[in-house]
Amino acid sequence: LREVSLKRAASSGKPARPKDTGPGRATRDLVMERDGYSCVWCGRQLLTGPRSLQHRQARGVGGRPAGDANRPSNLLLLCGSATTPGGCHAWAETRAEEARVAGLWVPSWQDPAEVPVLHAQYGPVLLDDAVGVTLLGRAA
Question: If we measure between CA atoms, which residue out of 29, 11, 41 comes closest to residue 125?
Fold first, then answer.
C-alpha cells in the first residue's frame, strides 16, 4: 500500500522539491551573528526583511570537497536575494568587478579564507571557518 501511495505522489504532476545544498542552520546562525545581522556590503540591519547568504565562491565550482562551499569563510550575509533585483546579493551575483575587489565573490582558483572582504561593519577583514574575522589594516 505504501508503494502505491509513493507512486501516486510521484505522478501527481507536482514538481519535486529541489535538493537543499546550502549551509545547515547552525552555520547560518553563526554567519549571521558574525556579520552583526547586517548586510556586509551596505550595512543595512537585517533582523527582519529580505536577507540571504552569499556563497563567495559558487557552490558549483568543481574540484572542491563536498560541503566545502558552505564553510563560514565562503559565506556572507547580504540584503535581498540572488534572484530579486535591488539587493546587494543580486548585485554580487552579477560578478561585477567592484564586487570581486570587495571580496563578495571569489574566483574558483582562490581560497575564500585568503581573500579579504571589505566588510561594512569591520572594514577590510579575512574570514575564517571558526566564524571569526581578522581585521586588516587596523590595530586589533
Answer: 41
